[in-house]
User: Fold these one by one.
Assistant:
Number 1:
Amino acid sequence: MDPTASTPSTTATVRRPTSTRFTRGLGVAVIVGAAWVALFGLVLSPNDALQKTGVRILYIHVPSAWLAYLAFIVTGISSAGYLWKRTRSLVWDRVAGASAEVGVLFMGITLVTGSLWGSITWGTYWTWDSRLTTTAFLFVTYIGYLAVRGLGGTLHQRARRSAILALFAVLEVPLVHFSVKWWRPLHQNESVAEGELEDMMLFTLFSGIVTFTLLYVWLVIHRQRTLALDDSVAEHGLDAALAERRQEALQ
Amino acid sequence: MSLWTITRLVAAKDLRVEARSRVMTNQVLPFAGLVMVTFAFALDTSAGDSLLNQVAPGLVWLATLFSLLVVVQRSFAVESADGALDALRVAGVHPGGVFLGKSLALAVQLAVLEALLLFAAVVLYQTEVRASGIVVLLVTYVAATCGLAFVGTIYGGLAAGARGRETLLPLLLLPVVAPVLIGATRATEAALGTNDATPGEGWPWIGLLLLFAALFGAGGTLAFGSLIDE
């Protein structure tokens, strides 16, 4: 604990920024990347023959979907990392939580951009194909996961509970996917554009994926650090307050 | 004590509690019946009963899921009220046995519930049970009931003792049991011959239900101790 926290001065606040030189560099790279993707996605890349200008939604949609899946995979791995006795550490738990939060956000963006794209290309906001349905279920499952993280209890209780839940989610996702796939065997080709993308479009898409991955890393690092601060408040906050009062009494 | 003895004792305890409290017969079963009647209100039946008949298997399983939520809440409310679950843990009872026991008790209650719901479908929706589909129907019911009981116990245990568990449980449970709803509905359709399905079409779905039950049964037996360890 920072020794300055127990000084009687009421104006003294401990400033510990969550950014480092690395994350600042990363943040700048994300901003540049976002501008780059906007430039290529909105201006330089051509219209699609079939989807017209609607194809531009995909430059956000596909990277968000990629980011969300990446986030949930990281949550699963981190949860296993916490549960495995030799590597047990709350850092795993915080990375899992931070990653799930970012994943839920971008899964939401995926669903919204996907329905917008669907309404332009398919003429409908939603179809019951396996990819869409699994995505929706993933979204709800990880909202539940975040709700469980907020249940309270000690830090290790939270970590263990949510880690087990995350591993059950890993079990659940393929089951949902295959049952929906069986349930609706005949559906249209999910990716109309698969194999038909021009070089420029592929390049834009690729830039989007790289930028979003950097954004993911930036968000998770920061969120992980703020979660660590939250945890230390929960753990030491009472002790610090007691020490302060005691100090006051002694003066 | 062996795992099986613990399982049996815990299940017997749960069923005895239910038998004495009569919550199942006085509240859950009437609720399930009410859900079946409400479905008939929601779906227009003026054009004859064919629509209800067509969707009957899905409605039966949907009503089962709604009732499952109530039964799971109940199963863990009796445990957390007096810290009974903690007492079991302190007594050194194998958590896998507690898991299997509670799942077994839940499965027995669900079986009673499902039988009633199927009967309600026969009476209210004019569903016909064919002799040729009876084996598929029974296996479907056993497989789906095991799966639901295991998942219900896992997530019920997770939410037990937590603030706001009444609202948390449906959020956690319903996405997970989606494969059971899909699989059990298709298999039941095959068994009952809804939409001209043949009983043979039900077996792949039963495979899915069995896989689901096996995965969550194994996972729950392993993880239940850590889940309820507060």
Number 2:
Amino acid sequence: MGIQILLHIGIVMILSPLLLGIIGKTKAFFAGRWGPPLLQPYYDIGKLFQKGNVYSITTTWIFQAAPIVCLAVVLVSSFFIPLGGLKAPIQFWGDIILFAYLYGLARFLMMIAALDTGSSFEGMGASREAAFSCLAEVVLFLDFIILALLSKKFVLSEIIEGNILSSWPLFGPVLLLVGASYFLVLLVENARIPIDDPAIHLELTMIHEVMALDHSGWDLAYIYYGGAIKLFVLGGLFVNILIPYHSLSSVMQTVMFSGGMIMLALTIGIVESCMARLRLNRIPLLLISAFVLALVGGIVVLVKGV
Amino acid sequence: MTDYFLSSLVLLSISAVLIVLTSRFQKISGGIFLFSLGTGCVLGLISAVSVLVHRVPIDYRLDFRMPIGEFYVGVDLLSAFFLLTIVMLSLFAGIYGYGYLKDDEKKNLSVHYALYLVLLISLMLVVTAKNAVLFLVAWETMAISSYFLITFDDEKEAVRKAGYLYLIATHTGTFCLWVMFLLMGQQAGSMNFDQMTLASFPLPLAGVLFILGIIGFGVKAGFIPFHIWLPHAHPAAPSHVSAVLSGVMIKMGIYGLMRLILIVKNFPEWCAMVLLMIGMISGVGGVLYALGQHEIKKLLAYHSIENIGIITLGLGIGLWGQIDHNEAVALIGYAGALLHVFNHAIFKGLLFLSAGSVIRSTHTGEIDHLGGLLKKLPWAGHLFLIGSLSICGLPLFNGFISEWLVFRALFDGVFHFETNALVFSSLAIISLALIGGLATACFAKAFGAIFLGNSRSIDNTHLEENSSLMRAPMLVLGGLCLWVGFFPSTMVSFALGAASTIASLKISPMAEEAIISPLLTVVWVLMILVTIITVLVLFKRIAMKFLPIEKAPTWGCGYSMPTNRMQYTASSFAEPILRIFRNVLGFNVTGNKPQGYFPKEEAISSHVIDASEDFIFRPIFQFIKSLSAKLKIIQFGVTQLYLLYIFIFLLILLIWKMV
Amino acid sequence: MWLELALILIIFLGIIILGNNRLGTMIQLFALQSFILSMTPLLVHPGIHAVIMTAATIILKVLVMPSLLFWAIRHVSIRREVQPLIGYGKTLILGGFFIGAAFFISSKMDLPVKAISNLLVPSAFSIVMIGFLLLVSRFKAITQVIGYLVMENGIFLFALLLLEKTPLLVEMGVLLDIFVAVLIMGIVVNHINEEFESTNTIHLTALRD
């Protein structure tokens, strides 16, 4: 168990910034540029680790605690999902709730850390994060309910492993709907375009980035690293739902999983290249559509009978 | 073990009288209060814990017959669980209250202390009464004593009005309870709960009893739309009283419903549906209204409604499990509800007490005026943070454990039920997730605006931390939050015991083990989380030795003259969410945006309208008021006429008897 | 399986149309929806009858009508629905509610014909309801035309039930009717625009006495 956990931590920590690199490369390709090297996110994080910190005189220990807890939480959340041939090291009846609520813990700390600076911009970011994430959480739970209904299991890794396989022939359309709505949640949770633009520098329009405005040095590195891992973990869950590879040999599983992750990064890159950021008041609409999509999926499951 | 419980009751009653007698000597009466509260609560605690550990109920009958009832108390597992909750919170809130009030020289505090003890006694009697009449007497005593406690600051008009509203609401509820118990007594042929439990109730009658119970107990518990008294009464009372009211007294409504389920046993299916609906509406409604509040105690009061909603969800799914003969769902649902009762008492008590410390230091509860208090009031601040994390149901703290149980019961419902129940369980899961997200937002707002950043309009420099008599109880409550969060098995097993009593089931150690063991894994994962956090902290500590650290003002994004009043306020923090939900809420923004190149002074304010208060009850009350104004016709003020009324009434009675 | 996938996609597109405020995108989405729709006869009863249906639907609904609508919006130069009668969020939630209702109603309905998939009738119902919702919630004449067309797509799905029994001629007639209707609407929209300098149907109330 201990070794499995360390292995999971290792893989997640080593590979997750690569996903950002692929997204960056894809966007550069669509913009007709050569773009930063694939390993640029590693360089960025490494650079931040070499820098000292600047703390605002207004802040308390909470400001410093939030990045640490965020990184720890996303690391722990990766234990619940299988990564290719690697089984999830922690599985128990009801881990879905822990999975979702751990993110709640990180979010709460990030929000109060933003308020800790006393800056109106960061308060604004925290407020937006609060508004959109509570809608995203509802959609996430609806997706979980549908998946749990299909598998009759209450364990995250079992929901996405064995039963996805048997569900695809019968409930393929439903899984597509769930996948679509989960993809929107993924974009919201990871602050990607069209919800939020991680690259812009206009505080008034930002959501997630604006909360990290005053963080620097190690704290900022923790936050960026945490963000990359979050994308990796939630993306891994997405790949596990959409690609029914779980009956293959473990080598093939790993290959399929890696392929899926790369495809995901490419998709996100393409979406970001093709779409503009939505206006803030349209974002709830996007989440409501995600909710309605999942709802239709749920109704279809009920009508067809499980 | 009966002795412990009874001696606690007797001790508390005697000291209540003594306190009134010694009211001239505030020091003595205060001393008696502290001593009797401590001893009485510890005695109560011992009896409750021993019943819960050994799982053997105890009974006590006194040969003292009231007209239609008798003095018959007993501590079964359900009573014991509530008793535990009551004494835990009342003890610490009482000690805090002593520290909170002791410098107040204008008021006669002895009466307040005595009333506090009376409230405690009546609470203990409500949960242990085994006779309907005794129950109702205790219920009334509880209502009246809490009325006097709420109106402690009776020189303020708002407080008097709140107390009045409370009195009306609680008596409306009591009326329904009388009818309910009379119907039950008629069916069973006795007013004793034991006999009632043995009787069988036909389904239609059970439905009627359920409706009466929902109204009668729901008014006390604060179900939406019967909650209108609650957000007025809780902020009006002194903080420690609010803690007891919100932490324990409103739970008596939940206790009553559980007792009703225990007695009647067979309910039609729609009852569970109604409970789940109430749970969803109260939960989501409560937290949305809370988001719209700008006053800390009012915000906490609305959060009580939200938590009552969560408890009701557990209760509802448990009842559905019981109706559907699904033992696991019934047990886990009830256990989740019960554990949340306990947890809510602890963390809401903690929150009210620390809010009280803030109000006592700054003399205001307006969130938008405060800020930056964590540095000035570190105790209240950090304990408020623990309370906030717990109430949001976040892992590491106790709220997570009970919400996990409710979630688990609901998910089990999704797996095992037919379409109807399945749809309701799914809806309940979704609302619970929404409640969790909104509560996180709400407490990020409350904690962030009060304790973090800089003070907005209050001068913080002279603030001082409160006395240790107020800090110690909060510290213990905060410790309890963490204890349940990290070592849940004791409390979960207590809750399961009480749940098996409600469902009239025997629970095998194996089944109990199966329910608790995932929670132990949760704890294990949390331990890993703590380890990783420690490692990350260590890494950073080591790195910081070699890297420079600077202090600077917060970056103003290029704006050169930032002031503290430019910080995001609690109202602005909540605005996006309220805007999303404005159609269900009645969210009003008044004021104008500044216009032109040289704008005049403008102000914007936002508030949330409580729909059930403004659109349901106010018209009803208006109607009743006008009706009673018409009844004034028969009121002449001439004594002879009144005598005539009595005579006529007697005559009618006689004739009625003859016919 | 493929039929169900198509049905789900049609509902999916319906929801997206409902949440959209750009007329161009709406028309494109409608064309896509119609394209998937036109494939359904082939999936239900492969045969010459179905091929003709598919071909006719593609020509009319995927090619002709969208280009007609594009012509209309270019001509009156409006690009988005600015002020809907019912807000987008509310329409979306209502849409979800209506879809639920559609599934519920059709589970209670007793049809004389045996449906090929138990999703067919409910999806037809849902699409009709989504179209109806578009009709009642938007002001712009173009959006209303689209709503009407989406509704017609739902009716087309209903007709799939009876594909074997109805003569080809009847369906062709129906399609032609719609074509003519859209043509007339396009002209009318144009005239509304010329008359009132806006395609907001609320201005039509000025015509009453």
